[in-house]
Amino acid sequence: MNKQTGVEMYVALGQQAAARRAADIAAIKQCRFDTIAVHGLYSMNEALNFNQGSIIEPMYMSSSQGYRDSDEMEAALSYQVPTWCYSRIGNPSMYYFEQTLALLEGYGADIETACCATSSGMAAIASATDPFLAVDPAKPDQKINFVTTCQVYGGTFQQFAERKAKERGIEVRWVVNSNDMNEWEEKIDENTRFVYGEMPSNPGLAFFDLDAVIKLAHANGIPVIIDNTVGSPALMRPLTRGADIVIQSVTKTITSSGFGIAGAVISRANIVSKFGSDGMKANFAMYLKTLPNRDNGQNLSPMNAILSLNDMRTLRSKMDLMSRSTMAVAEFLEDHAKIDQVNYLGLESHPLHELASKYLVLADSEHDAQYGKEVNRYGHLMSFTVNGGTAAARTFFDGLQRVWRATDLGRIKSVATIPAISTHSQQGEEGRAMAAIPPNMVRLCVGAEHPDDIKKDLDQALAAIDGKVTVQVPYEYSTGGASGASIAKDQ
Question: Could you say which DSSP state residue 402 is in?
Fold first, then answer.
């Protein structure tokens, strides 16, 4: 057998394997959301033929794959056959996670989706946006820009304002009122490469009419990139409405245990873009995995892939539970004398409540025996401002005993932070003012505890504004010699 014949043999075998997996994808797409989350593409065929019959996806810690001969290696490394080759690029554990998330983001629509998992949410943002910001050889002097909501996670703001604008000279055009379609339209021109939005936004819960933004962007030949971290595919699936690319900071909502650090870029087939190669537009996520991320190295590790995959199996039920609990807490705070304003899209008093209700719907609620109809769920993230300004907000924050003080969200445990001194501190006062993040704002993500216990903790911490608060301190700061000792702090 000559060299060419040998490669052709492996290509034919690879095509057969791809056809089998395509059949598996078609079969699992006929299932409900929860079944897809539990099984993904890990079928009995995968288990019995490739994984010793293991009913749970194995964690492949091997850094690379061995090949039968030079022909198979040539076919694999030229991307003519499915391959794991090297875990910086691909790995079986990573593959099972990516396929499951891609299926969930496309659930309910007859579309093809693909996923490229990354080492973090920030790596996902860089992966999704940087390919569109390359210099066009035909227009080397073109002043590139992109349009984005200003109400985004603080790390996103920094990546755009510092890494892209200041360091690379790319113009960032901030949309201040994302629900004003005139503002979007005014900022898009022939040099705009994409539009970007985070919805619901962290921490201010900004929201916009996604259908209208998609229509506007596509009319201008540019893709729509949406950060869906807070909503997750359990509540909202932008790709099914025509968005081109979705970003997940998988670390957050999806990996609710807090064990894994991961990100993901999920794309639909044949994205709209006047910039880029045909291959990039046909399957953007696979383009990332096999080309830019192969070279830049920000893809996901096998261990984090399995940790996140395991958490994702119960995503819908957790989002239902945490959304209902967050609603109860929001209603409690809305009526509290020490709270100035509550930002939660589930509240009928929120100016964007009706718009959010169009998009935020619990997956399969109409097929759920508990509901039997579509029900709105608004997620686990809320924010509020404390009466009395910055000092009062910090006194309240220091008084929390059950809710964790941490820069985290989407946890199975409730977590709070003050964005102005943590997640959004680096963007400065001007940037925070533009994004409507005052210093007395507290961000709260409600977990799976009983909401009565969270309300009780919030109430006692708010009461501390008028008196003393007991603060838990680490062992090394304690003079009593006992771990977890507490001290009284006069406010």
Answer: S
The strand pair at 224-227 and 171-175 is best described as unpaired
**CA 151 to CA 385: how far, in whole Å?**
17
List of residues 6+ apart from 97 with CB closer than 8 A: 40, 117, 262, 300, 305, 306, 308, 309, 312
Q: Where are the beta strands (DSSP E) in 344-475?
A: 381-386, 404-405, 415-417, 441-445, 468-472
State which residues form the domain around 300: 91-312
| CA-based nearest residue to 316, from 236, 383, 240, 238 | 236
Residue 449 sits in a domain of what CATH number? 3.90.1150.10
Largest Cα span, the chain: 86
pLDDT score, position 428: 86
* pLDDT less than 50: residues of the chain: 1-2, 478-479, 481-491
Give the pair of three-digit tokens for residue 199.
């919805």
Gap between the Cα atoms of 220 and 145, Å rounded: 14
Domain count, the chain: 2
Helix residue spans in 335-361 (DSSP H): 353-359
**Same domain as 329, residue 286:** no
